[in-house]
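TAXI family TRAP transporter solute-binding subunit (Proteiniclasticum aestuarii), 318 aa
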Amino acid sequence: MKKGFMKIMGLILASTTVLAACGNKGTVVKLATGGNTGTYYSYGTAVGQIIGGKEDISFNIQSTGASKANIQLIDAGEVDMAIVQNDVMDYAYNGTDLFMEDGAVTGFSAMAAVYAEVVQIVANPSSGITSIADLKGKSVSVGDAGSGVEFNAKQILDAYGITFEDINKQNLSFSASADAYKDGKIDAFFATAGAPTNAIMDLVTSKDITILDIDDEVAKTLMESYPFYTVYDIPGGTYTGVEEDVTTLAVKATFIVSNDLDEDTVYSMTKALFENKDEITSAHAKGKELSEAYAVDGISIPFHKGAEKYFKEAGALK
């Protein structure tokens, strides 16, 4: 058993489980999501209820510790499917960054990217910050220690010639970052999440913000080095006071599946995901981002054979 098994078992025991279909029918798929107040959990539950109501599959939805924990749960054989960030998925498959110490995990494959998790770099205009280069020497929160957000921040700052030693680095969650910003304790913070993000929405009710662009050439360089990134434009007006579009990068919330799941099951799940987009969108706003072309772009690991079969039929893969 791989290193960290006791931590994994603790996550399993702490999880909340919901059967997201009417009765037990056909194949039961254990789906790991995230915290039960987060988007992963609500999205996974919506998808499980809708697909489970139409296919010969039922879903056991588990509340977990999100991306890294979900990959470890698949590796331990405790779940069959999970929602993860595609950058963390890449780190696991290649044994880098978040998985440098534990080593590569290759017992899973991609099924479909489903919605954007946007790298939002929020800065205080009164601190004289108008670009990412201006973050040098400032107090900046880069997300929780060891999180995917921290690695996004490191990669982007590096592209601008800035190291963590060049800033007063703080490791704070999104809500704690917003509170520190309100109190004048930090000048800027990174948040990788669907836009709009609740912590930022709350922040703009009392404070002015700017969201920093990532320059086109820098974005191109980052995407060449880290193929899980895609360009994303945050529309003007998403946040009060930020009226112009902001060009940044995004990673993707992605369904992954165990390699042990059979091809027919994964094909059926993938097909049902897109055939039921309207119902999923009615149940969860993130459903509107579903598309076959989006689902395969920026995916840096192999697709499961069942998913690959569907995307080839749909013309999204050759």
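Residues 5-24 have pLDDT under 50 and may be disordered. The domain at 5-115+254-314 is CATH 3.40.190.10 (D-Maltodextrin-Binding Protein; domain 2). ok done for today
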